[in-house]
Amino acid sequence: MKDKYDFDCACDLCTMDANRYTEIEKSRLRYKTIEEQIPKTTDPQKMGCLIKERFEMMEKGKLMHPGLVALHANDSFQLANGLGNYDEAKRYAKMAHDALSIKYGKDNPRSMLYKKYLENKITGNMLIQQLSSIKISI
Questions:
Q1: Burial class of 110 by CB neighbour count within 10 A (0 to 12, 13 to 18, 19+)
Q2: Mind listing the pLDDT tens digit for each residue in 87-97?
Q3: What 8-state DSSP symbol labels residue 39?
Q4: 120's torsion region: left (phi>0), alpha (psi -120 to 50) or beta?
């Protein structure tokens, strides 16, 4: 920062131990690689493993921003629901609900739809159908 912007940054990332910084950067690079692999993967089992690893790399790479979590949790929910893995679908739906509630509030239409699903008031397929009519932003 000093060389490029002529100031000393004191944020956690810039002042942390070099080994910890390297670990975070490696996780972010792996996250990027996974993001490139997922759309090219046709095997649902492999895709499921990549999705789980993506969340691990997000956490290790300090990328757990509510908008990004909501986006990936929504995609993961739809895949799990489509494959009939309803326990996994519930887990991702909860993750999406929590992230959407943090970012947009509990009264946000998407947050409320996920809540209905989590309370077993609508099915996973109904949730997907109703979500498709609501625009998402990050």
A1: buried
A2: 999 999 999 99
A3: G
A4: left
